[in-house]
Amino acid sequence: MISKKIDQMIQQITYLLSLLCGVLSAAEEQWVVVSHGLNVPFHSWRADGAKASHGVLVLVPGYNGAGAQMLDARWKAFATKNHLVLLAPTFRAVGNENNEGRGYYYPQQGSGEVMEKALTELKKRTGVKTEKVLFFGFSAGAHYAHRFAIWKPQRVKAFVAYSAGWWTEPTPQLKSVPALIMCGEADGRYPATYDFFRKGHALGCPWIWRSYDQTDHTLTPAVRSMAEVFLTYYINQNTNQVTESWSGDFQTFKKVKLQDKDIISLEYRIELPSTEIASIWEKEK
Prior knowledge:
Elements: H1 2-24, E1 27-35, E2 38-46, E3 55-60, H2 67-70, H3 73-82, E4 84-89, H4 111-126, E5 133-138, H5 140-151, E6 156-162, E7 179-184, H6 190-203, E8 207-212, H7 221-235, E9 246-249, E10 254-257, E11 269-272, H8 275-281
Parallel strand pairs: 3-4, 3-5, 5-6, 6-7, 7-8
Antiparallel strand pairs: 1-2, 2-4, 9-10, 9-11
Helix pairs in contact: 1-3, 7-8
């Protein structure tokens, strides 16, 4: 038994060292995309060997936030483990233009074309496939992520949107785009975020809802962990992994076996496409 535990510890240390080596030997680049009167800096990051990768994760920061700050050690370790290239923009709004439907929150106003040009440049620099990408956005980043998916659903493999202040009406085209929608229950943005999810759920969008009690407008470790497990599933979706789907009640955050789904009212039932997602999604007793 002691020998087995020692072997497990050695394996864990070896794994952590491999992640660290990947981070230390990684390449980070910066460039500016000019389009529609916008000058937007982009930061990218990849570990060695990521040219033959599983794709791109776009990390969109909070209001007028710096893209470089999104490339933290935790996201880099996640990208190393999952063979991803990270891409983070630094958008800037002027005055109240976002509140008036004219700013970078709205991809059709120019920020979407900027993102597409950045993805084209990223493909040239790294060789990564950019036809369908993943998005993660918090606050202003959630504004951008969900609207990019509405604007160009064919470009989005899946997205995570955590706590936007207001949302654009979901469309039937989003039925092809999986999403994780989250918000803290002590956050003033909760009603709008929950309403957006409910509208998408009514349309039949393959979305997951998760809220967190006693949580305000903060990016917590629990939120990060939920997002990582969700994104991991869609990174590996086309591999030969064997997964088990579950059903969840998004009122109680309790999961049941898929064959028992009828015990959950259809109004509050969602699909949890893997045991890993279902386990971290379920609320502790």
